[in-house]
Amino acid sequence: MTEAKPSIPYWHVYTDADGSSRQEQFSLTNFQFQGVGPDVAPQWNDKQDPEKAGVTFTVLPVGWVGEWHENPKPQWIAVLSGRWFVETMDGHRVEMGPGELMFGEDQNTKARDGRKGHLSGTVGPEPCTMMVVGLDVAPTVNRPGRFT
Question: Which domains, and CATH codes, for the chain?
């Protein structure tokens, strides 16, 4: 096979060693070319560690703002339609749209200047629809790009 391994970008919102939230972009790159079952044609898979997870589909209304807060647990967020933004305590603001991923892991931040965790909200004239996969795992601290 001559195809190169794929790479899927994601934003990682995390807590640094000083207790501030930050975000950086990384890529999922641990793909293996294999079938998902014995009679299934091979495809590229980047299997995550098996964890208990809860899936929630959510729709953020136009004009919605989630004031400063931490993610309730480590969670993957995939934007399905619309746009939203995430601003971390370091002042970095990222806007994401359909097909973009974020891993929210800003638990255990320390409040500074009225900020704790991140600020988020919708962008533009339509609601933002997402799939949120909350993992039942302990959050890490100061491990940006933990899935790369």
Answer: 8-31+42-135 (2.60.120.10)
